Amino acid sequence: MKQNRFSKGIITLVFLLSLSFFSLFAPAAKAYANNTTGEPKLNVKSKAIVKGKDYALKVYNLSETQTVTFSSESPKIASVDEKGVVSALSIGTTVVTVTIEDSEGSEPVTLQCKVTVGPPAIFVMLSRQQAELVVGQRAVMYWLIAPLNTAELPKFSSSKPEVASVSAGGIVTAKSEGTAYIFAQIDNGHFSACRITVSAEGEVTEEEKIFKPDETTENKFADFLVDLNTKFTNGDNTSENTGADTAQ
Fold it and tell me: Phi first, then psi: what are they for 78, rounded to 5°?
């Protein structure tokens, strides 16, 4: 009988100690869990948007007690709704401010995103019409695009990804022996192509090969600029970009 009472006493003591342990360490565990989320942040700090298009801003690492409001410095250039969807309305630059308030009384936090609204692209040209690579080699594909203040980037694709693949930023990777065409296309349907010949044997280095514009490409693009200038503008409205600049 005494032994049973002793056993029950031990169990009760262990239970009480467990409750005390939990009450002491639960707040610390909760604080640790909250800290693991990190500080609130935006998915982008700057964004170029084509006029007439939308882009959704996202805020990460929010707690359950925090609320978010969005505002645009120049709503005529780019407006933003309560969900963070930015609408590009006219060409120019503005700043979207995100204000984060906490119902628990913490100081408000502000985040900003620089929004640049530009016109759509009307012409794109790859830096080369043909090029050679060795299996395992990578190359940066330059392109020329007009007008200068366009917010659009070309979309890349490969006719044979198993021979030569291409990333969203224009990085070409030679996969197997053969021939493939790399395409750069803009929203109005205009595109440019480069014929890639991949050989099985040759020197492969860790450094990426650079396909800068050759003389033929530059001359053709210059002719387009002259024609564009004659029809629409009074100056050079071109831009040179590389996949290395846009890959993030």
Answer: -150, 120
117's tokens: 């609204």
Kindly report the number of other CB atoms within 10 A of residue 216's CB atom: 10
Other Cβ atoms less than 10 A from the Cβ of 30: the count is 10
Residues 6+ apart with CB under 8 A from 71: 80, 96, 97, 99
Determine how many CB atoms are found less than 10 A away from the CB of residue 153.
21
Q: pTM score, two decimals?
A: 0.69
- The string of pLDDT tens digits covering residues 214-225 is 888 888 888 888
Nearest-angstrom CA–CA distance, 168 and 156: 6
Q: Could you tell me if residue 80 is left (phi over 0), alpha (psi between -120 and 50 degrees) or otherwise beta?
A: beta
